[in-house]
Write a structure and sequence with these properties.
This protein is of the alpha+beta class. It is built from seven helices and ten strands. It has a five-stranded mixed sheet with strand order 1-2-5-6-7, covered by helices on one side. Strands 8-9-10 form a three-stranded antiparallel sheet. It binds zinc ion.
Length: 225
């Protein structure tokens, strides 16, 4: 079941004390409104009634979709306690046969912030595989850099739906508005075919990060092989 607590925080702008809901666990299909908030990227957003400021509060939270079979742990800051908790969970998964059977086909991911949570939920709920979305990003980075200039650092690339249908990457920068790049899903399909065996071999059974570093390692390996 979902777990929610009320917690007091201080508004960073007017310093007034606010009560906020802190969800340590969200469970689908029960918590459908929270899923909507995640997809709209308002789940971790807090509004101050006094000064009307809005800000993002990220905290540890588990997002578990039991129908679509995936578990996302939001870990904004990896401390020793959380690292241990993840280790224990992964150990249990590898030792406990009944748990493994009950959760057969589950995907386990660690995400760091609201954007990553939103993106994984979106990808999985679209019925797609996040591993090949990450390798697809690696292909798009040079194209994006060619367009905006090589010296402009990219702060994030997020997979999203286009209003007109189809998919796009939303690319964020420092001091520059985000840009969108149409995604060619034929490349995604192609990557899934070509990288499947190496990707499967290199996907840990338990909670793990599937991000740009993971994708780059997979693709470098592919080039060497
Ligand atoms: Zn305030």
């Amino acid at each position: 079941m979902a777990e929610v607590k009320t917690q007091k925080i201080t508004c960073p702008q007017c310093k007034r004390e606010l009560d906020i809901n802190v969800w340590s666990k969200v469970e689908l299909p029960y918590d459908a409104p929270q899923r909507e908030q995640v997809l709209r990227n308002t789940f971790f957003k807090v509004g101050c009634e006094n000064c009307k400021a809005t800000f993002t509060i990220a905290y540890n939270c588990k997002y578990n979709d039991m129908e679509r079979k995936y578990l996302l742990w939001v870990v904004p800051a990896m401390d020793d306690k959380t690292r241990k908790e993840i280790e224990v969970y992964n150990q249990r998964l590898s030792m406990d046969n009944s748990l493994r059977l009950a959760q057969g086909g589950y995907r386990y991911r660690i995400v760091r912030n609201d954007n990553e949570l939103r993106e994984k939920v979106f990808i999985f709920d679209e019925g797609l595989d996040d591993r090949y979305i990450e390798t697809l990003k690696i292909v798009y980075v040079p194209l994006i850099k060619n367009k905006v200039g090589k010296d402009i650092p990219i702060t994030g690339i997020y997979f999203d739906k286009k209003a007109s249908g189809g998919y796009q990457f939303v690319v964020t920068f420092v001091n520059k508005p985000p840009m969108c790049a149409d995604v060619n899903m034929e490349i995604y399909q192609d990557m899934m075919q070509k990288l499947k065996s190496i990707a499967e071999r290199n996907t840990p059974d338990g909670l793990c990060r599937i991000d740009a570093d993971w994708a780059l390692a997979i693709m470098m390996h592919q080039v060497e092989a």
